[in-house]
Amino acid sequence: MDPGGTGDSGGPLNRSLGLPLLTLYGLGNILGAGIYVLIGKVAGFAGSSTTLAFLIAMATAGVTALSYMELSGRYPVSASVSVYTHRAFGRRWLSTTIGLAMVF
Question: Where are the domains of the chain?
């Protein structure tokens, strides 16, 4: 696959994950185990504004999700953020770094 993400791999992407599995996968990635520790730390720091802090975080995550939705429609390839970075900045080292940061 070329780093520019032109999609010249021979065919369209296949939908192989159903909605229930994809929803559970996304929920597992978003929550993880750290959410249980995070609530106590946020409550200790924000006090009575804990709910507001989580609502702000939810809105930020929602805007990020909408951005990914738009980008995945524009560049329908499986390399995700690496392709988006390469298309935006044209730097292979930057797209590789961002792609690796998403993995680790």
Answer: 32-103
Instruction: Report how far residue 104's alpha carbon sits from residue 31's, in angstroms, rounded to the nearest whole number.
Output: 16
Give the residue from 7, 84, 103 showing the smallest Cα distance to 95: 84
Asked if 11 and 94 touch (Cβ cutoff 8 Å), the reply is no
Question: In terms of C-beta density within 10 A (0-12 exposed, 13-18 middle, 19 or more buried), how is residue 80 classed?
Answer: middle
Stated pTM of the model? 0.56
Residue 26 neighbours by CB distance under 10 Å: 11
**Is it the case that residue 1 has pLDDT exceeding 60?**
no
| Percent of the residues in the chain that have a pLDDT greater than 90, as a whole number | 23
